[in-house]
UniProtKB/TrEMBL annotation:
Molecular function GO terms recorded: peptide transmembrane transporter activity
Location of the region described as Disordered in the Swiss-Prot/TrEMBL record: 33-55
PROSITE patterns xrefs: PROKAR_LIPOPROTEIN
Assigned keywords, A-Z: Signal
Signal peptide: 1-27
Pfam families documented for this protein: SBP_bac_5
Transmembrane spans: none
GO CC, any one term: periplasmic space
Protein name listed in UniProt: Peptide ABC transporter permease
PANTHER family for this protein: PERIPLASMIC BINDING COMPONENT OF ABC TRANSPORTER
Domain Solute-binding protein family: 93-453
Amino acid sequence: MSESRHNRQRRLAAITFTALLTSAVVACGSGGSAGGGDTGAADGPPQSGGSLRIGISSDAACLDPHQTGNHNVISMNRQVVDSLTDQDAETLELAPWLAESWEVNPTNTEFTFTLRDGVTFSDGTAFDSSVVKANLESIAELGPLSALGAAMVAGIQSIDTPDPRTVVVRFSEPNAQFLTATSTTTLGMLAPASLEAAPEALCNGDGLIGTGPFTVESRTPDSATVLAKREGYNWSSEFAEHTGDAYLDRIEFRIVPESSVRVGSLQSGELEIIDGTAPQDIPVLESSGFALEARANPGIPMVLFLNREKPVWQDPAVRKAVQIGINRQQLMDTLFTDLTPASKGALAATTNGFVDQSEQLAYNPDEARALLEEAGYTRNGSGLYEKNGQAVTFDVIQFYANETPTIELMQQQLAEIGIGVEIRAMSSSESDAVEAAGDWDTIYAHWTRPDPDILRVILDSTGENPYRNAPSELDALLQAQAVAPSQEERTQILGQALDFIVDDAVLIPIHDFVNVWAMTESVQGFTFDSGSRLKLYDTWLSS
């Protein structure tokens, strides 16, 4: 999930924590810098033209950036939709994009944006302050359909448009995350015609119109999404490497669930880029001359989200036993390369405000058993702990095909300490329905966003609460960090929230989410955004 749920992130100065962490970026082969880079050794200037074919492991039910947080889908709609600001993948500094400048009052309650002149949507409609106002209001009205977006704009008191190039957004209380949020696709700008379309139509890409360098040519869910270059684009972000039209004529995202099929298609020349490169395939591809690029996603890492409405999770002894009963290092050593680190806390290491909590997460099977026995659990004939006739077992909703071995090894590890795990594998779209119905014990997923406010969006039980977290003092902490009047105070409150999340085992961190992309040497200018999604405006194909 990403900014996600798998399904469900700004030039005055960088809005950063006092101790800004350098993004943990890994690149191998002939890969490049933190934001990606030249992946081959092409001579001469960038070349225009050509179709880029990308094989990705999964799709989602919705393409609309206001409604979806799916990691792969954001890599699609980012090419179509621009944002008010842009965020550098390495420094997390903000730069102008559709807004050429902005001012923020000292209390973070008033944000004034001066918009770029001459910007149009691909249908010819002018981009102006009224469109910004309409987009923000539309996101708020989507409510549960835009869980992340609604949380980003919550508390807006008024939106004024004194002239076509000025927007003033006022909040009823401080909003520490809003400026950063304006760099995301979730708050990306759609044309007025798109805002009038039915949400389900936008999900399928019908009428999805942005100001970006590409348009949606066609979309068949779970099969392919095709983007076409837009002529006349001339308002790229300050972080872009060029101005004017994109280099590529077309981008085709093909859904190829099987890792071996994606690798074979890359090797045969049917695809130029693939995602989800399995650890066992990395040495083969690298030795064959393919370039590899990888970056850990910021936000909430791969975790087990716990449905606290289920009896199994209402006992803190069980939650804590699972948390310290998983041998994360064994998972990494057995199933992953050194590109993927074990989680060290409730936030990924590339996230602003990250705190190393690895001591609290340390593997300790003896203590896990002791916690259960002290809470009155005893072993039954099957070797599982039980209490009042109820065995300690839970199911895991798993929709990342490459992560199945991870869940299977966790299943073995927990069985050794007397806890049963049932794996329920399904597609991402199938899991959406299961999640909404509450028919699950745990969901294995991640959420991507460089700002730690993602914790409030996902875990605050008084909000959308997609994972049915239980009410606790955590709610007040997460709400307080979002409205903190100073960065120092926000950092302090966030630290308390992170401690609570791990100490109470609100969720179970496993590993930072790292998507390894493999590509042919013809791919140049490959870059990530700050959420580790693709930015293909500067990408081109060498002859």
